[in-house]
Amino acid sequence: MLGSIESQADQLPWAAERPWRTSSHLWAESGIPTIDLHDLGPALAKKVVSLLAEEGEGLQTGAACLITGQGRHSVGRAVLPQVVGDALDHVAHEHGWRVRAGRTGRILLVTNELVAPRVATGGLGPVFWIMTSLFAAAAVWACPPAGIGLAVAAIVWLIGWRNRAD
User: Structure pTM?
Assistant: First the structure.
């Protein structure tokens, strides 16, 4: 899929010193395909997003991660995060997908919430839900009037948090 990007990246002025290769700029991290866009200009980075949009439905992992960096080496404002973020927002809106900020300098595209790992969706794991349930049960047992109020408040908060995440 990214072979055409590799050949076009060879034409960039810095390609002799910092060539962009799928062997060095594409890998799996936490079960998610990760594409490092460093050493690509904005135009080629947008092409990567376009290619990703074409293949998005077929992503078996349900998500992909694009590394844009923070722009430390940019003169003025960081270009890649803005260009890639805008392109991903457009693609996600067009296909009904979701874009999430990852760790610093990373943007996640979630194409299928049902198969994407929790690290991509931002979902809370079973340990969180077990501990929350145990806390609520202990609160109700220890002080029924306050515990019931606390449990109801926690449920309302969790429903609101879940709705904001979607």
Answer: 0.73
Q: If residue 18 lies in a helix (H) or strand (E), which one and from where to where? A: none
- Among 50, 51, 164, 63, residue whose Cα is nearest residue 110: 63
Contact between residue 39 and residue 80 where contact means Cβ atoms under 8 Å apart: no
- Tens-level pLDDT at each residue, the chain (166 residues): 788 898 899 888 988 999 999 999 999 988 899 999 988 989 999 999 999 999 888 888 889 999 998 766 556 677 888 999 999 999 999 999 999 988 788 999 999 888 888 888 887 778 888 888 888 788 778 878 777 787 788 788 877 766 665 5
Are the C-beta atoms of 69 and 20 separated by less than 8 Å? Answer: no
Do 118 and 125 form a contact (C-beta atoms < 8 A)? yes
